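Troubleshooting: if your tokenizer reports a length mismatch, compare your output against this known-good record of 171 residues.
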Amino acid sequence: GDQSNTYPKGFRGGTCTMESGSLVIGYSGYFIPGDYEIPENANSAMSVPVLCGKIPAPGTLDVTIDLLYPESAREWPLAMRLAKMESGTSANSLLEVPSRVYESGTVTQGLRIGELGEYRLYLSGKDGNQGDFTLEIPITVGTQWYEDISQFWPMLVLIAAAIVFHIFRRL
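Known-good structure output:
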């Protein structure tokens, strides 16, 4: 039967789930800022989990893709490509990983992204019926001015309410 209902699409438990007509994946990423310097005595670099491909600034993004459904996808040769988007279309490829089989069901790749903008990570291949498919993972580098403010909206509402209360209390 169709087990894809087991994997709700969207964000769940630190992983984003995405699908094409042929494949359901879990996607997670860890970001290391471009200006971060690894200390000499460090065992590893400081990394920050990212929410569904939104990273705050240029840097290194370590991506993990779990092949969730169907399980037979672990036997399909899959290729990966990172492209920068311009005017909604794939302008140029920054990285291409040739087709290979991921028997473990896990695809990992480090991506060095040096500029703000919109990117797409494409995972493509042939499904169990030998039909071509491409799964598109959006990656946004940098945030819009209002995205940073939006996380503080409850505090802004409380401050506004306190000001209004103070004004009306004096009347």
